[in-house]
Every structure is written in structure tokens, then in C-alpha cells.
Amino acid sequence: MERDDKTPQEPVSYHSSLRSGATLLSRRMFRTCRNFIQRQPRSDPEIATQLDRMLAIIDVLEAASLRVGLGNNLPDHYAILQLKPSDDTTNRDLVRQRYKTLVRKLDPNKNMFPLAEEALMKVRESWQVLSDPVQLDRFEKELKGEAEVVSPASFWTMCPYCWYLHEYEKKYEDFTLRCGNCQRTFHGSPVKPPEPESMVEGKEQYYCYHMSLPLRYPVDENCSFEIGGNGGRKMRIKTVANRSKVKGFVVPDSESESDPEMEVEL
């Protein structure tokens, strides 16, 4: 009986002549692998394309190993996207073009060489920084050694007696605090801060809302609220609470009165 040695094999993802280069690449012997690539003939267009894919992996990973900045602790996102200092890096079309070119070369569906996915991840991280104006500005400042001034962490708490919100430094959380409005002491438990749209821009103030309703409610048709008069309902609408900075944190100013509350009878 004849033996059948034919077993299904995975399709070859790159030319057999490039297996030595793939082994060097997997071992991160980038310089030796680059020399191997330069010695290979490029007469075959398919082999030439595969050599370019290998070279793209080496270029990206070598650039990702570089460190720049004042403390030499920042990745060189420009080098990863193969941008030179003479290039206009503010030109987003140029940055996008380099990004797309590298993505095509490092596409794991076509580039089956080792470390292709790692190189693609580095490219995407650099693109995320260089394509976002906010992250790009932060990266440029870090390159120049310009440290950003970071305000101390803070938390918001509420006085349970007058309902005033206060903002304190984080180190005062769970301390016994004194309300700057009613002068009573209370436990500084953190609460949800006011919404950004409720803050008065350029002032130490925030908008707040109050509502007062009678404690008795109608139980039958003969018992109902009067509209207006002593039995009417009053609603207090949108007042402004003042805040002032004291010893590095913000508390309400007891000497400055809040704006008079507007009362509307229904």
C-alpha cells in the first residue's frame, strides 16, 4: 500500500528566497536584515514589493526605538511616519499621505512578515498624535521642555445647611470644613460638580436653581391650591451664587450677597 505524504500546508506568504530575511526580522536583527534586503535582486515585481514591506517594518521599528525631547523620553512620532525635519509637519495632507502609505505596506492581510502588526500599531499611535491639534500642541511643548502648569486636584462638596457648593483642594476631602456662607461646619464629602454650562465664565460664580412648594397637597376636589394670594405657590428661579478663592481653594464669600432671588407667583 502506497503511503500518502501529501498533507495540507499553509500558503506561502512570501517568496522562499526571503525566508532568511524573515528569520532575521523576527529576531530583531534589523541592521543585518537591512543588508540582506539590499543584496536581493528586484527584477521580480512581487519580490520587490515584499522587500519594500520588510523595509517598512524595519524603518518604523527603528524609528520607534528613538527617544527625543528634553529628557529623551518621548517617542519620535515624526520619524515613525518617515517625516523629515525639513518637511512641513503642519501640512495635514502630507502627514495623512505618509500615514496611508505605511498602512498599505504594513497591512497584516498582505504583509505576512514578522513584527508587521507591531509596526502598524506604532504608526497608528503616531498618527493619532500628529493628526490631533490638541495632542500635537502638547507633544510640541514636551519636545521643547515646556512643562504645563497643572492645577492641584480638587473636589466639590455641599453644605447641608445652606446648600452652597464649595470647591476645595483634594487634600481636604473628608475633612471637617466651615461653610463660607452660613459659617457652619460640615463633613466635606465629595458631590457631583456643577455642570460646565452652569458656571459663569470669567467670574467665581455659578448658577443655581431653587424651588419651594407647600407641604400640603389636595386630596379631593374640595381641597385645592389657590392661584395667587397666601395660598399660592412660589418658585424661586435661577439665582447666582458668588464664590471667592481662599487659601488655594474656592468657597462662597460671606461678605458679598448673592443676587436677589426673583420670585414668581403662579
From TrEMBL:
Pfam families with a match to the protein in the record: DnaJ
GO molecular function, one term: zinc ion binding
Domain J, residue spans: 76-145
Keyword DNA repair included in the entry's annotation: no
UniProt entry tagged with the keyword Zinc: yes
Record keywords, A-Z: Metal-binding, Zinc, Zinc-finger
Protein name: J domain-containing protein
